[in-house]
Batch of 3 targets.
Target 1
Amino acid sequence: MKTRTLMLGWEFPPFISGGLGTACYGLTKAMDRLGMPVTFVLPRAMPIRFPAGEESPAGMEGSGEHYQTHLRHMRIRAIPSTLTPYAPGQSQAAASWRRAKATGAATLEALGEATRAVYGPDIRQEVQRYAVRVMEVAEEEEFDVIHAHDWMTFPAGIAVSARTGKPLIVQVHSTEFDRSGEHVNQYVYDIERQGVHAAAKVIAVSNYTRNILINRYGAPPEKVEVVYNGVEFNGQTEASFPRTWPDKTVLFLGRVTMQKGPEYFLFAAKRVLEKMDNVKFVMAGDGDMLYRSIELAANLGIGHRVFFTRFLRGADVDRAYQMADLYVMPSVSEPFGIAPLEALQHNVPVLVSKTSGIAETFRNALKVDFWDINEMANKMVAVLRYPPLQEMLRLEGRKEALRFRWEDSAARVSDIYQHVLSGT
């Protein structure tokens, strides 16, 4: 009999703010294809309403707290919540906390303000309330293992494991050190550490993340397994609309936060435009550094060459990739990086930060230190000026990206479940 999983997550399409929801969807779809029964518990405003004119990629149907999906072996249990994780439009409060930390003026009040700004209102109460409701859901479900994604669900996973005796597996998609650098939110760090030590196994999305868990959280090395993310290739090889503009286009797609390095992208863009005048830069995403990035582009004198689209979803994401001649991921700290694989899915060559999980295992991509804006600019110019280099990165990169399959990730997860359940 296939392992039955009680999966705890904070995002699931179409309710996503970053790679976490995309990763949860890709993994559970692949687990479904392997016949692995999953009950996915998700905090969500009730009843679930999808954006106008958009259906859930999971094909959710139902009412109340129970939702069926088009996935044969998966159900969603939605827990009523008013919380919107990673609430946009509150950049000033988040920035004030970073300034307070940097100047030594941090207070408990500033910490509370920053926590609310980055994670939404009353995050502590919502995380606790989610844990209580998950305990109730667990009494109604049959499962063999508990699989919790990222820190918001760790308290729930720990509580259910303690009550039922079922083993807990936690999957770390990002750590507080990725999100905040050295100025960590102690509340979040403590939860992450507790989850890592309470789990029977810890899944890290890269060796980069595994090393952080071992060195910063004291995780026993034998407990931490690496399972890379994947991407679903749909066979698309050509843009669905013709290119009618003469300029080259460089794309940044991701949350506009400190972790993703948007300011380094803009400083490098300035250098590129000093050498080439036929280049446009697109920054697609939201985050606490959005308005600061807009101001920076203006102050650098390149505002007329940088286009800010805000958060994109669905077909708009596909169109953004199709417009691009190069995708750049200048992350300061990136546990894995699904977006470069998505870019290659659309035949777009990629330039990635060396401080990323994808860089440790991917050969056919240009790599650069996020802080080296001159080298970043030089590599952008090389791709844009020399079609043979662009074509080689595109073709070989796409071939290599085909190795990152969600089915392989799901099979590794299944193996981890079996080892935990058998005690080996």
Target 2
Amino acid sequence: MKALSRNISLDHPVSLVFELVGNDVCSGHPGIDHMTTPEEFRNNILKDWAYLDTVLPKGSHMVVEGVADGRILYNYMHNLTHPIGGMTYSTFYDFLNCVGVSPCWGWMNSNETARNMTTERAMELN
């Protein structure tokens, strides 16, 4: 976002897609205590939007997409063979969690309760 380079008074308006994906709920830490709280999320988003208001040309529009539901990927891929071969995505996710290197403990997890807790927080942020 900070790399955006526009001339606020000379450039034509832009259409900006503001996609949040899932970084506010994803990390390798088990549980939800490390996840962004709704209050922190709101404050951060408002700061981001205030910044964009100073760099986007007048008349620009922004489409904001909420935090994704990571359960969708798991539901479709958990039984498929991971590209490293020899194991399913579900098994690979559990391995990553076991050795503490998962980029998203909550959604990359065979434990449905963990995936649901992560989604619940994501929906609170949305």
Target 3
Amino acid sequence: MLTLGFFFLLRPGEYASSTNPDSTPFRLQDIHLWRHNTKLAHLQCPITDLYSTTFACLEFTNQKNGVRGELIGLSRSGNPAFCPVASLVTRIIHLRAYAAQPNTPLYTYFYDTWQAVTTDMLTKELRAAISTLGPVVGLHPAEISIRSLRASGAMALLCAHVDTDRIRLLGRWRSDEMLRYLHVQAYPVVADLAPAMLQHGHFNLIPNIP
């Protein structure tokens, strides 16, 4: 669920159980899978077909800031463990193994009984990771929560020099609100600014002559 939240720039209530009454999680039936140009029937196709998925989408039904029926999709990341497509396939296989209904939230899992991955559980996991890795990246566990994933995914795209319009499209930001999530102190964002200013800082103004 952490992988899905990061790559799809999701809000916590879309991929984890939350006490927020406005939470509208994605469900098993909201997934769409493709193997190249072939759409897969993910609720009943063979598991071998699921593993061959190359592109995966989530369909908006009543999620906040989502257009009903709109799809957001991603291809494989190239990492077998940290991949949005592989994570969705894993979710499908688990839910199908226990005969989950199509309207089952993706955060549901079966362990003796049906249970839910909560926002508190995911925040705890993130903070445990930061306790180990935090000093390397300049973070403290108290600074991190489940809401950090959406900003982290957007920052990763910005550091990869992805156009901000494309980031807004993926994250369904309808204004420059997205800028509040981005951190100007990220090294890849600012590392080449001074040389660029030096190289391109010589210019002439067009005379303001009627």
